[in-house]
Amino acid sequence: MKNLILEEMDRYDADGVDFVPIFDLSKIPPIICSYTREELKNLKLYPKSDRKYWKMINGKKVYCDKNIQKLIEKRENKMMSSEKFIGLCKQKVAEYFNENSDVTDKANMKPDDVYVVWCCKTLQNHKALLSTPVSDGMYYEITYNGDKHELYLDAYKKWKNIKYDV
């Protein structure tokens, strides 16, 4: 059986193989174990399961089966990391500021000028409160809906800050 797997790897010009469940109905099956060609040659036992062949391209595992690779790339492109979210937030606030600020502000906001006051990630959703160094009383709330892959920007102006003793 090992020779058959190695022959299939040659046919696909694959660097390795992932063993996946035989009866998994999900579009992207979970990986039971993963081996490079060299690791596979030295194995005595291996799982009896379906196989997905891959090669390393620019340090990234790319599946030889184009349908699986497309599904994985689609999933990775839709995932929003916290760093990506914050960068997008700063960019959107800078764009909003530059389109809507008073002429008297005389400022051209860059994303690096925008700062995060508060940020939170829950499941696939993100929320952040941001502001700028311009003392115009504005702050911005940006929400990312991970289910719909939508970003919402709310712009607020602080009118007053009243202290109450409690």
Helices and strands in order:
Layout: H1 2-12, E1 16-20, E2 33-36, H2 37-42, E3 50-57, E4 60-63, H3 66-78, H4 82-100, E5 115-122, E6 125-131, E7 138-145, E8 150-157
Antiparallel strand pairs: 1-2, 1-3, 3-4, 5-6, 6-7, 7-8
Q: Gap between N and C termini, in Å?
A: 76 Å
List the total number of helices.
4
Overall pLDDT metric: 84
Characterize the main sheet. Answer: 4 strands, antiparallel
Strand fraction equals 25-35%
Secondary-structure element order, N to C: HEEHEEHHEEEE
Structural class: alpha+beta
Low-confidence stretches: none
Side by side, the strands of the main sheet go 2-1-3-4
Describe this structure in words.
The chain is 30% helix and 31% strand. The protein is of the alpha+beta class.
Q: Short summary of the structure?
A:
The protein is α+β, with helices and mostly antiparallel strands. Helices cover 30% and strands 31% of the residues.
